[in-house]
Amino acid sequence: MPSMHAYDSELADLIFDYMRERLQLDPVPLDHPGRKDKLDSVLAGLIGPEGHDPHKVLSVYDDHLSQAVISCDSPRFLSFIPAAPTKAALLFDMVVSCASLQGISWLEASGAIAAENQVLRLIADFAGMGPEAGGCFVTGGSAGNLSALVVARDVARMRLGLGPYDRVRIAVSDQAHSSIGNTLRIIGVEPLVVPSDDHRLTGANLRAALAADDSGIPVIAVVATAGTTNAGIIDDLEGVSEIARERDLWFHVDGAYGGAGLFAPSVRGRYAGIEHADSFVVDPHKWLFAPFDCAALVYKNPKLAKAVHTQDASYLDVIHMDTPDEWNPTDYAYHLTRRARGLPLWFSLAVHGTDAYAQAIEAALTLARESAELIRRSPELELIREPELSSVLFRRKGWSAEDYQAWSDRLLAGQIAFVTPTGWNGETVARFAFLHPHTSLAVVEEILATMA
Ligand SMILES: *Cc1c(COP(=O)(O)O)cnc(C)c1O
């Protein structure tokens, strides 16, 4: 075995061959959840003072570990939010790894950061956030929401002359993503929960909730969702943004899942008002076909974010050269060291062009509409609501929560699909989350046939 930092052509061939095979799987098999006792016994003794033959270790991964992972890039994975990274993005992710690209500062990584910023610019332009908009890529929507709302909080406390521990609140819909609730707990900000109108946050309800509030604790921001994860509902961004401007509230838009719809002409109109967002998050690792983990965080006025997030440490002084071109991604979120995780998306966008992205996103939207039509025509099924984006909620008449779970288990055991039940107004129902452009209507028909 050569030194572990020396190039080993046999090891390289082993891994590259494996990657070639994985990239060519068509379709990717769904596979199954693992059993802890089995996995433990496979892993037992594998890491100790002496190393092992890489062929042996890779076969542990290939034969046991990888098969105990349900493949979220399978076109039959229709639970939660699936993934469908492009081959170009996946391959370039390996380049990012092999080149040890990090993305902290302009001083160290200007080439990588310039390319990431080209993508952030594109996203800001699709949203219409204005010429100054910018930000950085973070690990996910949760990290993006957290970083943005820290800026909202601190900017407001400065503006209102409040101290770092004074109470402030942020208005959120009762349908906001769980990461928003987590964020508020982490940053010590209380929610003003605004009741939604048919699961949608509206300007009218926000106005009423603010008017009814007599707590005396200032509300400093509002969070809208551009595509709820469960049902794909886009809040009344126009109405909410109007009140945000009237009341000087920071307007944050969580588009982790649905933000990709900005690229799709058939639904773009539903995002009207997003151009007023002070901060906006979209997860390319969801519906913009990038590998994990990748979320774009964009601020209308990034200078405010920089004032809040810049880390002060004497050894970091050199990265803050304060030249006009300098852009340090580390200054726009709570992180320091970061992978240049925007580059796989940059490469894929440059290779394929934005039209190909629009088409791939439209494919999921079309499939959602066609599936809704199939459900409407099935006497034993009921469509719960017209899909706004690519998620479809429906019920099988007469089924209990146990029936849905047993059905879901059968589908996975038969490798037909991974479709987990979800909750809707306290009821257990079925849900499809479409995203992979290779999920066909035939797969949907096959699944629906199992519900007869
Ligand atoms: C997925 C999602 C999140 C969380 O994003 P992660 O990338 O999983 O951290 C936040 N908000 C919404 C609306 C989401 O769909």
From TrEMBL:
Cofactor(s) needed for function: pyridoxal 5'-phosphate
A single MF term (Gene Ontology): pyridoxal phosphate binding
Assigned keywords, A-Z: Decarboxylase, Lyase, Pyridoxal phosphate
Gene3D superfamilies: Aspartate Aminotransferase, domain 1, Type I PLP-dependent aspartate aminotransferase-like (Major domain)
InterPro entries: Aromatic_deC (IPR010977), PyrdxlP-dep_de-COase (IPR002129), PyrdxlP-dep_Trfase (IPR015424), PyrdxlP-dep_Trfase_major (IPR015421), PyrdxlP-dep_Trfase_small (IPR015422), Pyridoxal-P_BS (IPR021115)
Residues bearing the modification N6-(pyridoxal phosphate)lysine: 286
Biological process, per Gene Ontology: amino acid metabolic process; carboxylic acid metabolic process
Pfam families per UniProt: Pyridoxal_deC (PF00282)
Domain of life, source organism: Bacteria
PANTHER family from the UniProt entry: GROUP II PYRIDOXAL-5-PHOSPHATE DECARBOXYLASE, MIP05841P
Family membership: Belongs to the group II decarboxylase family.
Name assigned to this protein: Aspartate aminotransferase family protein
